[in-house]
Amino acid sequence: MTEVISDTQVVLVERDVEKKTAILSLNRPEKINAFNNALLEGLMSALSELADDDEISVVILRGSGKNFSAGYDVVSGYGSKTAYEDWRNLQEKIDLWERVYRFPKPLIAAIEGHCLGGATMLVSCSDLVIASETANIGWPSIPLGGGLLSPVSLWHIGMRKAKELSFIAGNSMSGIEAAELGWANKAVPEGTTLESAKTMAGRVAKTPLDLLYLKKQALNKVYDRQGFVESLRAGAEWDAISHTADSIGEVKALMKDKGLKGAIKHFSQS
Per-residue pLDDT tens for 163-184? Predict the structure, then answer.
């Protein structure tokens, strides 16, 4: 039996005790489930509750509506604060993604539609990923930062592809390509990611919860020693430094002159 245990408008949580599975939905479909403070706080609160819920072994993370998430709600503040303040702000955001990575139970991300910018960080810190074949997994459309997303993604897709995605503004990969590269476990037909994630969650949940915890810890410890979390946290340093680059002022001037859509078109043209 499915029970809705949380409805904070921007985050929904459903528990299915019989299947030992919970579904956590980012719920701002009118904003493509973009991250604002309320959504991020709701996400962390829900994960904290589910971490202590011994009746739940696996959590599925999805976006309400037709998309997973557009990432951070707005891109603002470049040049409006010191590099130190910028770094502190970015570190606080990365603290949240490290909490996702440290979540003690298997976390399955089900990706439909757009998964953009900061949302790729959330998925990169999840354990398993089911992506729609037509999913659009995208990097920032305008070069206003440097080194926040790609250093984490390269752990899943390799250095060559990570550089390609990082160097070309507005670059992206489909769900099919994401699965081929290893960013996703599998790509499935559009509209079927949730059901596919439920099937995978059901299989995972057959393993006793204490063993799932130990298995995840064993694998994460290897990643820790190899430097995954260090890469995650170093991204804030590189992004804070890049925000002080002279070119940031030039990009902002271009945005003011041509507008957001015009600036995106400028960087997307061959």
Answer: 998 888 888 999 999 999 999 9
Residue 261 has pLDDT above 80, yes or no: no
Number of domains in the chain: 1
pLDDT in tens, 95-127: 999 999 999 999 999 999 999 988 999 999 999
- Find, among 162, 163, 169, 172, the residue nearest to 144 by Cα: 169
Q: What are phi and psi of 17, to 5 degrees?
A: -65, -35
**Residue 192, domain extent:** 2-268
Closest CA to 17 of 59, 55, 52: 55
| Pairing state between β 128-132 and 107-111 | parallel
DSSP 197-248: HHHHHHHHTTS-HHHHHHHHHHHHHHHHHHTHHHHHHHHHHHHHHHTTSHHH
Q: What is the CATH number of the domain that holds 20?
A: 3.90.226.10
